[in-house]
Amino acid sequence: MIPDSEEWPDEPDEPDPEARWGHPEDDLASIPSIEEPGAGADPSIEVDGDIAKYFWVAVIYANVALGGVSIGLMLVVFRGQYTLGGGAVVVGLFALYRTYDLYQTYQTRVADDDAAESGEDVESVETGNGASSNAESVETSSGAPNDVD
What we know:
Blueprint: H1 24-27, H2 49-79, H3 82-118, H4 122-127, E1 137-139, E2 145-147
């Protein structure tokens, strides 16, 4: 019979898994602290209600467009469900069109508002050059400029 004090005399002592690492908290290099992004932002900034409405409606339309087109194409290609998949693609494409239309409507509204504030003609803002419609020189079909009187 084996005495209780020496059950397994050949077994080594259990190693301490944390002993090989030392104290990692103390050994780490000091890391400088930085400001969190947005920590200095003013939380009282107000966004115009119309801008927020346009943004969130565009986000919803874009999500519907992405989901409809991708799920519809997967239904058609992988499962052969042309009716359901085709309908989903049509819904997605319509939502994509509405997103684009909403963006164009917003751009037109902003251009009109900016022109009204600055007193410029709306047509010159839409062309993007801000120049008047009277040209100083007109190019002919050969590319040579001709003066216009």
